[in-house]
Design goal:
With about 400 residues, the chain is an all-beta fold. It has one domain: Neuraminidase (6 Propeller). It is built from no helices and 34 strands. The strands form nine sheets. Strands 3, 4, 28, 29, 30 and 31 form a six-stranded mixed sheet that branches. The protein has a five-stranded antiparallel sheet with strand order 16-17-18-19-22, with no helix packed on it. A hairpin with an 8-residue loop joins β14 and β15. It holds the Pfam family PD40. This is Translocation protein TolB. It comes from Thermocatellispora tengchongensis. InterPro entries: PhoX, TAT_signal, WD40.
């Protein structure tokens, strides 16, 4: 069943005003800003890219005009680096005449993140580590100043700010809170960073840095019910507000339990910001949410049993389409189109015990990267992980 929906999307314009950033100085495409559009009610239907074809040589079913290739396999060399197990959250960054794809590693104690540098034709130039020695690095998010926020999905987990270009050491950003971090998305208009929490009663947070572009100091806030329905209130569509988290370090009481009016979500997963809206998923109830930052409203984009199952990672195109990856289910990446249609975009066959992670578009929007975290083996440790690239006529 599909309930009432709300969907806006935006262009690729970005706000690059982040005075004081110690990192890089221009904003990547798709990092926020731009006009918003109201879309029709979401409904299951035909994909704007057409039906899926038969599985290709890589076991990927795609619409006509699209092709796939394997970029990296866990335990095998790519660009001089042994690719990590359990590839998870990812993002792309511009790099001269090429680009960089960053991937987290969801392995206990050894986690971290790696990067692959591509040339203008998609050839692999090199690969290297950008973070090591962390724990269960799950999703994360890119910043407008070209850094990667790698998030630990453990109790009292941290956010590490990493340099995808490999020139600076990764740094923990303690002011962003200690909790089971999942994903992060930057809002350059309000100069905040939204974050999800993968707990059965997880919260939705935002970090307000003192200086935009410098994450060493700031205020952690949690999304709240302004009416105040009481502790443990489940999230529901309607007006929302923000309140500071008294103790972001969560030494005694977990961050999600510190504010009585905080609203709770059934396992926060992916997070994506575009055009004034922050979209995020909750895997426990298979929902895609939309927080309208200007209106201070929370809405449900998708709430159903099909065609999206086990919603997890989420990203978007410059043209306003959302791409949502499944954990389990049919191992599909689905599209929620700017016209309001929900349909499969691709399917991975023969890997039913895996999950799709790390969805990210190249800076020019022509290539989609993602990983099968466990690969065909389905091994819990993710030693069979595979990272893919899909190329084709994505809509602007």
């Amino acid at each position: 069943m599909l309930r009432r929906t709300f969907l806006r999307s935006g262009g690729a314009a970005a706000d690059a005003a982040f005075a004081g950033s110690p990192w890089h100085g221009t904003a990547p495409a798709g990092s926020g800003g731009g006009p918003t559009r109201q879309a029709p009610r979401v409904r299951a239907g035909d994909s704007p890219y057409g039906p899926l074809g038969a599985p290709d040589a890589n076991g990927i079913s795609l619409p006509a005009g699209f092709t796939s290739r394997i970029v990296a396999r866990s335990g095998e060399k790519v660009g001089g680096l042994t690719w990590h197990a359990a590839p998870d959250g990812g993002a792309c960054f511009p790099d001269g005449d090429g680009w960089i794809y960053v991937s987290n590693c969801e392995v206990p104690l050894l986690g971290g993140a790696s990067a692959i540098r591509f040339g203008p034709g998609g050839e692999v130039r090199e690969a290297y580590r950008i973070l090591s020695g962390t724990d269960l690095n799950r999703a994360g998010g890119a910043t407008p100043w070209h850094t990667w926020l790698s998030c630990e999905e453990i109790p009292r987990g941290q956010v590490f700010e990493c340099d995808p270009y490999g020139g600076r050491a990764a740094m923990p950003r303690l002011a962003m809170g200690r909790f089971r971090h999942e994903a992060a998305a930057c809002d350059p208009e309000r100069r905040v960073i939204y974050m999800t929490e993968d707990e059965p009663d997880g919260c939705f947070y935002r970090f307000v840095p003192i200086v935009w572009g410098d994450l060493t100091e700031g205020r952690l806030e949690v999304l709240c019910d302004p009416v105040g329905t009481g502790p443990g209130a489940k999230a529901a569509p309607g007006p929302v507000s923000w309140e500071p988290v008294p103790s972001p370090a969560a030494i005694g009481t977990p961050a999600r339990h510190q504010v009585p009016r905080a609203v709770h979500f059934a396992g926060g997963e992916g997070c994506h910001y575009a055009g004034g809206i922050c979209y995020f998923t909750s895997g426990g109830d298979n929902r895609v949410w939309a927080y309208d930052a200007a209106a201070g409203m929370l809405e449900i984009v998708y709430d159903g049993d099909a065609p999206l199952r086990g919603v997890d990672d989420i990203t978007g195109t410059r043209g306003g389409d959302l791409f949502v990856a499944e954990t389990g289910g049919l191992m599909e990446i689905g599209i929620i189109s700017r016209e309001g249609v929900v349909a499969p975009f691709l399917r991975v066959t023969g890997q039913d015990r895996s999950q799709i992670t790390g969805t990210a578009f190249s800076p020019d929007g022509s290539r989609l990267y993602f990983s099968s975290r466990r690969g065909p083996s389905g091994a819990r440790e993710g030693t069979g992980g595979i990272t893919y690239e899909v190329t084709g006529p994505f809509r602007d």
